[in-house]
Design goal:
The structure is a homodimer of 210-residue chains.
Chain A: H1 6-18, H2 34-42, E1 54-58, H3 62-81, H4 85-93, E2 104-111, H5 128-146, E3 150-154, H6 159-166, E4 172-181, H7 190-194, E5 207-209
Antiparallel strand pairs in A: 1-2, 2-4, 3-4
EC number (chains A, B): 1.13.11.79
Protein name (chains A, B): 5,6-dimethylbenzimidazole synthase
Organism (chains A, B): Bradyrhizobium jicamae
Chain lengths: 210, 210
Amino acid sequence: MITFDDTFRRQLHDLFVWRRDVRRFRPDPLPAGTLEGLIEIACLSPSVGLSQPWRFVIVDDKARRQAVIEDFKACNADALRSYSGERAARYASLKLAGLEEAPGHLAVFAEKATDIGHGLGRATIPETTEYSVVAAICSMWLAARAEGIGLGWVSILNPARMHDILSVPETWKFMGYLCLGYPMAEFDSPELERAGWECRRATADFITRR
Amino acid sequence: MITFDDTFRRQLHDLFVWRRDVRRFRPDPLPAGTLEGLIEIACLSPSVGLSQPWRFVIVDDKARRQAVIEDFKACNADALRSYSGERAARYASLKLAGLEEAPGHLAVFAEKATDIGHGLGRATIPETTEYSVVAAICSMWLAARAEGIGLGWVSILNPARMHDILSVPETWKFMGYLCLGYPMAEFDSPELERAGWECRRATADFITRR
C-alpha cells in the first residue's frame, strides 16, 4: 500500500495554489512527446463506470489553428458586446487566450456514445460523461504545472465550429481547447497573478452543514 | 517562482495511479475539520471566469443520510432492471457506493446563477460552470488520497430528490454525492483494484493528430 508524507502533501498544496490558467507563453517548442505524455497521465483520471470517454486531438495543422484563432476572435468580440461601460473596457483589456503564441494546441472532446462501462453510473446523471473528461483535463493541468509547463483552457469558442474545423465524429462533445507551453512570467505571489477580472475567493462561506 | 523536482513528479504520478473510487470504508470517524480542510483545497481549483461556483453541503443529519441511501437503492434497482442476463448478474454483484459505512458525507452542487465572474467564459459553453465544480471535486479527491482518505463519487442518485432532501436553492445544480473515510483495504497493485466491471484502459488509441 502506497502512502504519502507531509513533504509531498505540502508540495501538492503548493501545486494547487500555483496552478494557473496561462495565457502568455514563450515561443519555445515543447520537447517531443510532451503532449502525449500529458495525455497518458490524463488517462489515469476517474471516469464514470470506467468509461474513459476522453478524446484528444493534437492540433498541429497551421490552417486549422488559424481557423480556431478566428473563431475565438469572433466569440470574444460577441462577448465584449455583451458588456458595457467600465466593465466592457475592463473585458477588452483582458488577455483571455494564448492561442497565437502557444506551441501546443490540444482539443478535448467527450465521446457521448461510448459503450465502455455499459452506461454504469450514467443513467441518472448523463453529464457524468463530460465530468469524466473534465477530470482528465484537471489531471493534465496539474501534471503540466509540475513540469513547469503552463496550460490555458479556452472556452470562448463555438463548439459547432470546433467540430467542423477538426472533423471529429458527431458523437464527440467539445469540452475545451487547451493551449500549452512554457509560461512567459511567473509571479512571486499567487495572489498577484489572481488579481484581475475577479479575485474574490469563495471558501468556508459556501460550506453548509445539514 | 516555484518549481517542482523529479521526486515530487514521481510521487504525483503515483497519486494519479493510486487515486481510487472507494466504496468500502472502515467505520472510524475522520478527524474533526477534515472535510472543511478538503473543501479549502477544493476551492483552489480553476473555475470559469474565477466564478467559483462550487457549493458544499456536509450531511451529518441521520434522517437526511438515510433518505439519500433510500434514493440510491431505488436508483440502483432501476439501473439493475436495465441490464439482463450475465450483465445483470455482474451489475448486481458490484458494490457501487459506501453510503452506509462512510463516516463523511458531502453533497456538491454548482451555483448556476452566480454573478461572480460576470459570465466571463461562460457565454459559448454554459456548462463550464459545472466543469469548474468537477475540477474542485478532483482536487479534493487527490488531496484526500494523499492523506490516506478514500473518496467515492456517487452518481446513482436522483438530482431532484437531492434538492428535496438537502433543501438547497433551486439554482444549485446537483453534481455529485461524495462518501469519505478511511478505506477498508488497499491492494499491492493498482491494476488489481481496477479489475472489475471494466478494466480496459484507453490511452494513446484516442490521440488523434490534426
